[in-house]
Amino acid sequence: MNLNYYNTFILVAEDSIADHGEIPNTKRQNKTVGEIQFELLNGHDYKYMQEEVLFETHMLHKNIPEEAREAEREAFFSKSQACMRTSPLGKRYGWGLHFNQDGYVKLVAVDNPEYLKLANQKDLTITRAMKSKR
User: Are 9 and 121 in contact (CB under 8 A)?
Assistant: First the structure.
């Protein structure tokens, strides 16, 4: 099963009110999915593929011990998974997601000039994060 995107730019959701890339910070005891994904991706341009982000987020969000990684990975990918279009980063926090030709992802803030450049790049597949409301 391959969940990765290639040569794709995920724009912020159509109903997002974010006008800049906001750092998720809920101040909750346990980190949210958005906080975990931001920490994984921010400053780590093109380090992770979508599958890795989804699985690492799952491991951290559910506090799964490292020794259970292999069994958990098999169980995680045996079920269908929501893609990064459902990420709070694009739905709520103003972050676009650029996947390069090798499938590795980089965060791009909606207020960064690079965002507009990528959004208009003809050789990329352009899609949007899912709307928060139907």
Answer: yes
